[in-house]
Structure formats: C-alpha cells, structure tokens
Amino acid sequence: MEHHIERFNEGSAIVYLWGLHDGYCSVYDDDGYDDDVSEDEESQDPDRITTSRGRIAKRTRTRLEDLFLFTNAEKVTLVLRGNGPLDGSDMATRQTIADISVTVKRLIDFFGNRFAIEKWPQRNSHPTRSLRPYWNPPTALTRRDILEGRATTEQRIQVDVEIWARELV
Fold it and tell me: CA 149, CA 41: separation in Å to the nearest integer?
C-alpha cells in the first residue's frame, strides 16, 4: 500500500496518493499479519462490504486527517491508486471507500469544492475517474432504482457510502 503527498505548494494544490485496502500492507509485513480482517468480518457474506475497524483502516483514517492541516490549499486531491475498474466497483476499492468514507465526508464538508477524490490505475495516472459523486446524498430516484434492481454502480455506491459514513459515528 503506497501513500504519500505527491506535491505541495503552500496555497496551491495537494495530491495525496493512497493504495487500496487489498488485504496487504507492507507497513505490517514483518508482524506476521497480512490483512485487516477481523474474525467477525470473516464470517460475513463476502459480497457485503462493511467499514473495517482493523488497524490498517484506523491508520488510514488517521493519516487522512492530516489533510485538515492544509487549510490554505487551493485544491486537495485524494487519489486511490490500484487495480480494478476506475468506477471503484472492485472489492479492494469498495473496501477502501468503506474504510475512509467518514473521513472523506468530513474532508468534503471542510474543503467543499476544493476537495476531490479520484481513482487512478496502478501503473499509469491516465485515465482517471472522480469518485466524489459517491459522497452525494442518494436521491429518491436512486433509492427507487435500488429497490427495482436497475441502479447504476454510482447509485449503489452512493447508498453504500451513506451507510458507511454513519457506521463509525
């Protein structure tokens, strides 16, 4: 899992790269553990993503809170970098979104339109995709589409983010 600030100029732009929560983190490689899954989570439906309370997820949320320090930045972009489709529908991206949803919601509230969240491919920075719409509140139409089984990926993740952003509060 990579994470670092790519560029920073006071009053300018910050790009913060973060690797996906794919079950492996080199930071913890030497401790004999290679994932962030608790025993309770292992017994759940594998298609059901929940916010992790494990050490990688907690550490990620804590590190992302450092972005609140850059109050003068014109633009703050959090980049989720990894494999899988750019729409974030893969399990690793969805788990990462679940784990950071509360903090990202707070960052959006704090920075407003100056905050962006994007998905970049692992090996190349283009093309990219904005994931910011996932933090928009689901509309009545979105909820109807979910119930009727014709929701788009964006609609499904919006509803998930609404739930994930409440789980840790």
Answer: 26
